[in-house]
Amino acid sequence: MNDRLIYLVDTLCQNGGLSLDEYQELLGLRCPQGEKLLAQRAVEKRQAIYGTAVYVRGLIEISNICKNDCLYCGIRRSNKNCDRYRLSPEQIMECAAEGYRLGFRTFVLQGGEDPFFTDQRLCQIVSNIKSMYPDCAVTLSMGERSRESYQKLRSAGADRYLLRHETADQEHYGRLHPGEMSLDNRMRCLRDLRELGYQVGCGFMVGSPYQTDETISKDLKFIEEFKPDMCGIGPFVPHKDTEFRDCPPGTVELTCYLLSIIRLIHPPVLLPATTALGTIHPEGREMGILTGANVVMPNLSPVSVRKKYELYDNKICTGEESAQCKDCLSARMRSVGYEIVTDRGDVKLVE
Ligand code: SAM
Ligand code: FES
Fold it and tell me: What is the pTM of this model?
């Protein structure tokens, strides 16, 4: 194996980081043996902290109505073919009840930036879930909001917030988003969330249009500095109603390579093997776990709306009941020697 590659992997393991140039070099030197070496190291680190436990999060997709127009996203406001829906508070509570019965102790409420979900309405939903299931964590993934809004939601009981930074490179950010959105505001949100005491998740798509090893190096540097509690990375998958419809999807190999690197940068990080990874390869999620991930997010949304929350083409798990999805994932994890656990699955602070 390339000596330089071995040196970079050793340095990353020891220091929990590399310089921007070194990250870029590590990406450039990717090869099957390098992927294997990084995966081995990543699995050792994760094993030491989390053993073979895989945490589950019940994902409730509460609305596909969005005021934003991110160029890659199937539910962007300008997609006139998107069949819009919004779950009622009662439907959301039913999903949580089903999830609780199935052993989930974290609920992730995710949706487009739907103006219907004012602070008041969302706070009510969060506090209902928290009072009904005090042993559960509530994660929100509802996009960019004001600091005051994040503050109110935190007071209502929200524990965690997922907001992918999407790319840490200004110019790249500008090519993926309309002019009214900015990387600065995205970063402002992440800082506010951290200061307000949330467990915070950032992340990015792998293989998004115009992404280069240089932009990925900046993502890795940002992750090294920000040390997120959670990090959502999954392949970009094109959606037929967006202008990126003909762009190639991200690959399993690069996604897994990055999962391993991120595990080594920040060993306690909660790292999902995403649905998008399972979409581009039938064993994508298992491969994610075997290269450093430790979280899976089965779908708890009502089957009637699943197909409508279509961020990208051919999304999996849109026809299955929640129980089927959970059983399927449990079997998949067991098949590679891991076990889904009934646990809130908070980040373990080891540093
Ligand atoms: N509105 C919230 C937000 O912006 O964070 C949450 C919902 S948003 C649809 C969740 C994530 O889906 C985004 O952060 C993005 O990375 C991912 N996503 C959107 N379109 C995608 C695509 N075509 N392929 C893969 N992931 C995609
Ligand atoms: Fe949803 Fe397999 S995980 S059906």
Answer: 0.98
Phi, psi of 230 (to 5 degrees): -135, 155
Beta-carbon contacts of 113 under 8 Å, excluding residues fewer than 6 positions away, are 66, 67, 68, 142, 143, 144
Residues with CB under 6 A from ligand 1: 72-73, 110, 112-113, 141-143, 163-164, 166, 205, 234, 236-237, 239, 276, 311-312
Structure tokens that stand for 266 in this block: 């920040």
Tell me, in angstroms, the distance from the centre of ligand 2 to residue 81's CA. 26
Protein residue closest via CA to atom 3 of ligand 2: 325
- Per-residue pLDDT tens digits for 119-157: 999 999 999 999 999 999 999 999 999 999 999 999 999
Helices (H), the chain: 3-15, 20-28, 32-50, 89-101, 119-132, 147-155, 170-176, 183-195, 213-226, 252-265, 275-280, 284-290, 303-306, 322-335
Determine which residue's CA is closest to atom 4 belonging to ligand 2.
Answer: 325
Average pLDDT over residues 315-333: 95
Give 49-72 pLDDT, tens digit per residue: 999 999 999 999 999 999 999 999
CA of 329, closest atom in ligand 2: 3
Q: What are the tens digits of pLDDT across the range 215-235? A: 999 999 999 999 999 999 999
Indicate which ligand has the atom closest to the C-alpha of 140: 1
At residue 351 the predicted structure's pLDDT band, cuts being 50, 70 and 90, is low
For residue 147, the CA-to-ligand 2 centroid distance in Å is: 36
Q: State in Å: Cα 112 to ligand 1 middle.
A: 9
The letter for the amino acid at 48 is A
Q: Which ligand is nearest to the CA of 323?
A: 2
Ligand 2 mean position, distance from CA 109 (Å): 19
Instruction: Give the residue-averaged pLDDT of 29-40.
Output: 98
